[in-house]
Amino acid sequence: MTTVPGLLAVIDMQRVFAEPDSPWAAPRFDEAAAGVRRLLPAFAGRTVFTRFVAPEHPQGAWRAYYDRWPFALRPPDAALWRLVDELADEAGTVGLVDAPTFGKWGPELAARLGPDGRLVLAGVSTDCCVLSTALAAADAGVEVLVAADACAGADDESHAKALHVLDLYRPLVRVVTVDEILGP
Predict the structure, then answer these.
(1) Whole-angstrom Cα distance, residue 145 to residue 159?
(2) 30 FRET partner, CA 20 to 30 A, in 21, 85, 90, 95?
């Protein structure tokens, strides 16, 4: 397997987005997970997994958000926040970044990336946490690749719209496929 430059950030591949009966289920979660599994060997030792977790005490506009989604006000160790089983072991060996925000770009990811690095994003939800992470990283001057076929949205239309918006940020953000990342 060829090594690909950069850091792979696997965004929020958690049970709350995987389980079909969850209010936050991403219908194509399994397809995104298949893309993530294809990427992992090329980023051996250069992968980080993230988790969206609820804050203990929501502040500001987050209060209204959790009024809408009260089921999600659970501690970080709650079952809904766990990574899906197929990826949990991998995350245990490479690292985990938790955040109570949609965007996961911040000091922890920046430190793992290093100066002048490339950030490859995969995961869920394209139209929320992936989008928020990509734009914040791009604003910080990071080259961002979004693996379209290793992401899933709240629905197909939202996924497609988010990819379209992300592609408007070229050359800072490029929407690509897993095959394009892995190369020949």
Answers:
(1) 16
(2) 95
